[in-house]
Design brief:
Helices cover 38% and strands 22% of the residues. The chain is an alpha/beta fold and 483 residues long. It folds into 2 domains: 150 residues, 3-Layer(aba) Sandwich (Leucine Aminopeptidase, subunit E, domain 1), CATH 3.40.220; 312 residues, Zn peptidases (Aminopeptidase), CATH 3.40.630.10. The strands form 4 sheets. An 8-stranded mixed sheet has the order 8-9-11-10-14-18-15-16, sandwiched between helices. Strands 1-7-6-2-5-4-3 form a 7-stranded mixed sheet, with helices on both faces. A hairpin with a 5-residue loop joins strand 12 and strand 13. Helix 12 packs parallel to helix 16 and helix 14 crosses helix 17. The longest helix is centred in the middle third of the chain and has 20 residues. It is globular. Bound molecules: zinc ion (ZN). The site of zinc ion has 6 residues, from loops. Pfam families: Peptidase_M17 (PF00883).
Length: 483
């Protein structure tokens, strides 16, 4: 969707002067239900639709007024669904009672809800052809806003953040074509000719040669070799600081020999969402030429079953040197991440580390589909991320890592085990395991997005499929770290 500047303050002139016949004129009000009734009366419209936390009414495909109450982002989502229902491809923001911050959030929600995953690979062509006619006005292609809004830095930033989040969804929604090699090709296409970006790839046995044995073990059963992708962007050569992002990229998680059951495996192409969000945030930092140094590590592997798959009871020496016994092959994300975290520190000695992963069903059970779990060794970092998440409607909730959790992850025959015997506090146990692989003095946050990684319904700011939840938080964090 293109966001454009509208050079008028009222919708009357362009109705005559331009071809606005297919445009939806959007009016935004800050209202409760009594106030919206008064607006309705004044505008002489009927057809009242109450949707979510906004109240919407239309006048024969001419205008849509939204009384925003509650989440501005969700109000933007309602606009999209209404525009789709009426068949509008262009939205023009005309009357607006909201302030810049609220308006920006409505438009951000609109961009986020106005998304549809386009198929890739062999299946794409046929499907796209049949879709083309239907799609013409199904999705909003142009959005026009007034000059004072368009030029506002807060508005510009929210639009940029929302658009980069859509790229994260494109990556996460890939199906069988979304292999580790796909991601290698993607980063080469994006950054090969960019002198400010350094690309490092460790593929297959190169992982073993570099002692990333946990990472290699997870991917050793797949025909797609496990691959570490590391990208470094130096946007501020005068600064000593380097911020690290690490993402879990399990391109498909069968569970391994502890095979997942029917009902638990169907969305496991999304188990790479953490890495996809990290790659998108990195692309955002490069595209926006942020004055920040950032290194990102994507741990890409398929957790498959085959005669070469790793097995329960196996014991591996990690990149850090700690030994780990495998009690459950479905607790594979933490193994990949453990090696990615210690490799990233050994290679780059970063100032701070944010790691994001669809790590535990336990976190989803605790916090639901709209909130991520946050675990950190640093109160200040934790507070910063909670505040960013709240503002961008990607909220996180801090959960603890205690000595009790750390004890549960001690191994019987090795230093650590990968799941622990007690069937409790799975999210905190996974975080406790990861804490072993991070230098205590480095501010570190682990973001568990297993709950909000996907949307089952077309609701709020999310169409069905990958949400990209957390992408904006990562990118906004980097924006804030500019010096
Ligand atoms: Zn798993």
């Amino acid at each position: 969707m293109k966001v454009k500047q509208l050079c008028i303050n009222s919708y009357k002139p362009p109705v005559q002067s331009q071809n606005w016949a297919q445009s939806l004129f959007l009016n935004l009000y800050r209202c409760n239900s009594q106030q919206i009734s008064r607006h309705l009366h004044r505008l002489k419209v009927n057809n009242v639709v109450k949707g979510g936390q906004s109240f919407i009414f239309g006048e024969e495909k001419v205008g849509l007024a939204v009384g925003v109450k509650g989440s501005c982002y969700n109000a933007g989502g309602e606009v999209v669904r209404k525009a789709r229902q009426y068949g509008f491809g262009t939205v023009v923001l005309t009357q607006n009672e909201l302030n810049i911050k609220e308006t920006s959030q409505v438009i951000s929600g609109l961009i986020q809800a106005n998304y549809k995953y386009k198929l890739l690979g062999d299946v794409a062509q046929e499907k796209q052809q049949s879709d083309e006619n239907n799609d013409q006005y199904t999705y909003i292609s142009d959005l026009h806003v007034q000059e004072n809004i368009f030029e506002d830095p807060y508005f510009q930033q929210l639009v940029q953040l929302a658009q980069i989040k859509l790229y994260a969804r494109d990556l996460a929604n890939t199906r069988q074509e979304g292999t580790p090699q796909f991601f290698v090709n993607e980063v080469k296409t994006l950054f090969k000719d960019n002198p400010n970006v350094e690309i490092k790839i460790l593929e297959g046995q190169q992982l073993q040669e570099s002692q990333l044995n946990l990472f290699y073990a997870v991917g050793q059963g797949s025909i797609h070799p496990p691959t570490l992708i590391n990208l470094t962007y130096r946007g501020n050569k005068d600064s000593q600081h380097l911020h690290a992002l690490v993402g879990k990229g399990i391109t498909f998680d069968t569970g391994g020999l502890h095979l997942k059951s029917y009902g638990n495996m169907e969305t496991m192409h999304l188990d790479k969402s953490g890495a996809c969000n990290v790659l998108a945030a990195f692309k955002g930092a490069v595209d926006l030429k942020l004055k920040v140094n950032v290194t990102v590590t994507l741990g890409m592997a398929e957790n498959a079953i085959s005669n070469t798959a790793y097995k329960p009871s196996n014991i591996f020496r990690s990149h850090k040197g700690l030994t780990v016994e495998i009690n459950n092959t479905d607790a594979e994300g933490r193994l990949v991440l453990a090696d990615c975290l210690s490799w990233t520190q050994a290679t780059h000695n970063p100032t701070s580390i944010l790691e994001i992963s669809t790590l535990t069903g336990a976190c989803a059970a605790a916090l639901g589909e709209n909130t991520g779990g946050l675990f950190s060794n640093n109160d200040e970092l934790s507070q910063e991320l909670l505040e960013i998440g709240k503002e961008l409607q990607e909220p996180f909730w801090r959960l603890p890592v205690t000595d009790e959790h750390k004890d549960m992850m001690k191994g019987q025959f090795a230093d650590l085990c990968n799941i622990g015997k007690a069937k409790v506090c799975g999210a905190s146990k996974a975080a406790a395991f990861l804490f072993n692989f991070v230098d205590e003095k480095t501010p570190f946050a682990h973001l568990d997005i297993a709950g909000p990684m996907d949307s089952k319904a077309d609701k709020g700011i999310h169409p069905p499929g990958a949400t990209g939840f957390g992408t904006q938080v990562l990118l906004k964090y980097l924006v804030n770290k500019q010096e």
